[in-house]
Design brief:
The protein is an alpha/beta fold. The chain is 43% helix and 20% strand. The chain contains twelve helices and eleven strands. Strand 7, helix 7 and strand 8 form a beta-alpha-beta unit. The longest helix has 22 residues. About 3% of the residues have low confidence.
Length: 317
């Protein structure tokens, strides 16, 4: 049974091409399932129009929703005509990320797909504030789709944490690898690679402790990470050639290896911390994301609870 069966596609309101919708169709054609094309819209000028009665403002909002629904239907025309089942839904909401997450919660969507814009000069992916909110707060996996074709023979690169410093790392590593292997097997038999990064010798330690031997320290740290990677790959029967343990910061190692492998997607765990703790705990993940040039699939731990709550309104009745 395929894992992803109830897909939510966040429609980009500013362009006719919809890479996220294209990726969703690609998935359901191989996995089966259902697609919902979803767009939250809001125009503050409609709320400021004091010359109109509440009923007139409601009618104007409905008119805008109908127009955007017709526009999305046209974007989906090719897929609909070829037999792909796509539900189209437009809601009036002034905070797009909240509307998207509430839709996920209300209808148990198991995968959210959204387009990530590409920076023309550097080829890196640019994330909007809405993207960051979704990556941090959406309870289901979030697939950020780059607006470029999938590379020929593109691989999946799974970023795992081999430090073992926190109790959630091992279960999350297993969840990331399981999800990636299952998707690769069900969709396109792509290669799945694992990558872990280990830190270099802290300079201050080498300075403050004259007898400290950086090479011994580096060997010990690398040995720990290699052993952890071996345990992880053996659990899934992966060949050593598909695993990589590299020295350096994750935000440098992971994007560099993804580019070297010509990866189509990087799969990463997102702890989803918000508020004060996010500046520290979520920083590494976000730095990695900020340097990627390919698709990103962010997966939360099993015990993650979204800070966004479901508010039943007209759009969910």
């Amino acid at each position: 049974m395929a894992k992803y069966q109830n897909l939510l596609v966040a429609i980009d309101p500013d362009q006719d091409d919809q890479p996220a919708l294209r990726r969703a169709v690609y998935l359901v054609q191989r996995l089966g399932g259902h697609i919902k094309a979803f767009l939250p819209i809001y125009d503050f000028s409609y709320e400021m129009t004091t010359l109109l009665s509440p009923d007139e403002r409601t009618a104007m909002r409905r008119g805008v929703i109908e127009q955007r629904t017709a526009w999305i239907t046209e974007q989906c025309r090719h897929y609909l005509d070829s037999g792909v089942q796509i539900e189209i839904k437009v809601v009036w909401h002034n905070r797009p990320f909240e509307a998207i997450i509430q839709e996920v919660l209300a209808f148990d969507h198991d995968l959210l797909l959204k387009m990530a814009h590409q920076h023309d000069r550097f080829e890196s992916v640019i994330f909007t504030p809405t993207d960051w909110h979704l990556l941090r707060k959406c309870p289901c996996p979030v697939w950020m789709v780059k607006d470029q074709p999938w590379p020929e023979g593109g691989k999946a690169l799974v970023a795992v944490n081999l430090s073992g410093e926190e109790p959630y790392h091992d279960p999350l590593n297993i969840k990331l690898v399981e999800a990636s292997l299952a998707l690769a097997k069900q969709v396109n038999q792509t290669e799945v690679h694992l990558v872990g990064a280990y830190p270099v010798t802290p300079i201050n330690i080498a300075i403050e402790l004259p007898d400290f031997d950086p090479s011994v320290y580096n060997d010990a740290i690398r040995g720990q990470h290699l052993l952890a990677m071996k345990t992880l790959r053996q659990k899934f029967g992966l060949d050593q050639k598909y695993t990589h343990v590299e020295k350096g910061m994750p935000e440098e190692v992971i994007p560099d290896l993804a580019e070297h492998l010509d990866a189509g997607v990087v799969v990463i765990g997102s702890i989803g911390r918000t508020g004060f703790s996010a500046a520290f705990i979520g920083n590494t993940t976000e730095l990695v994301i900020d340097h990627l040039k390919c698709d990103l699939l962010a997966i939360k731990p099993d015990d993650f609870v979204s800070p966004v709550t479901l508010e039943l309104g007209d759009q969910y009745e």
